[in-house]
Specification:
The protein has helices spanning 7-19, 24-31, 73-84, 115-124, 128-137, 189-211; strands at residues 34-35, 39-43, 48-52, 58-61, 69-70, 96-98, 141-142, 148-155, 158-165, 174-180. The protein has 212 residues and is an alpha+beta fold. The strands form two sheets. Strands 1-2-3-4-5 form a five-stranded antiparallel sheet, with helices on one face. A five-stranded antiparallel sheet has the order 6-10-9-8-7. Strand 8 and strand 9 (158-165) form a beta hairpin. Helix 3 (73-84) packs across helix 6 (189-211).
């Protein structure tokens, strides 16, 4: 019995077709991508992905594609957006700001007071050692300020900073996300939510791996 496509699957498939309309040579040059006649390669949150140059499908692997996994919606949509949408001369400002201060954000989606971020902070509470080790596993650079604070790469060319504080008698657990001021030159703000959702998923994955 064929598994029915979800709306997320349908969006991913339609966006793969959109990807094929863009100039792949431009993507290769802009981000210094590895490539061959069949695939473009890109690193996303410390993991290697490849995009099929004829179908637009996105896959990832942790062992040089001996074992292959299909990218999920958050992974694929983030990669498509960065490759297709980013401005021609996108560059970092090297100034980090709270993500809800990004100038183009007009809704509450990225507010650090939203349930999404608080739920994530609550999940990390009591797990500072595991969270720190997970950040290290994702090649993060440890920073000051916070019970756990790291600069991590969404992509090799696009960093993000997370700062986490444990709950105490007066305040709940707190999670702060800082992005480069020019992040929205690389992706739409809705896509940043996809990227952060996947980042937290990867941290969770590494935390589970440490328990095994």
């Amino acid at each position: 019995m064929t598994k029915a496509l979800t709306n997320y699957d349908k969006i991913k498939i339609s966006t793969a077709h959109v990807f094929l309309q863009y100039n792949q040579a431009t993507m290769i040059h802009k981000y210094s991508l590895d490539y061959n006649s069949d695939w473009l390669y890109i690193t996303f949150i410390n993991r290697t992905y490849r995009i099929n140059r004829k179908t637009g499908s996105v896959q990832w692997s942790d062992n040089d594609f001996e074992i292959i996994h299909e990218a999920n919606h958050n992974e694929a949509m983030t990669i498509y957006d960065v490759l297709c949408y980013s401005k021609d001369r996108c560059h970092l400002s090297h100034e980090f700001i709270n993500i809800n201060s990004l100038s183009s954000v007009r809704t509450g989606n990225l507010s650090t007071s939203s349930g999404f971020f608080q739920n994530t902070a609550d999940f990390f509470n009591g797990k500072t050692v595991e969270l720190r080790n997970a950040c290290i596993a994702l090649s993060g650079k440890e920073l000051e300020k916070g019970d756990v604070a790291f600069k991590l790469n969404l992509f090799p060319f696009l960093p993000i900073i997370i700062r986490f504080w444990e709950a105490d008698d007066e305040f709940p657990a707190s999670l702060q996300i800082l992005a480069d001021r020019n992040t929205l030159d690389y992706m739409h703000y809705e896509t940043l939510m996809f990227a952060l959702t996947h980042l937290f998923s990867r941290l969770n994955e590494e935390m589970r791996n440490e328990k095994r």
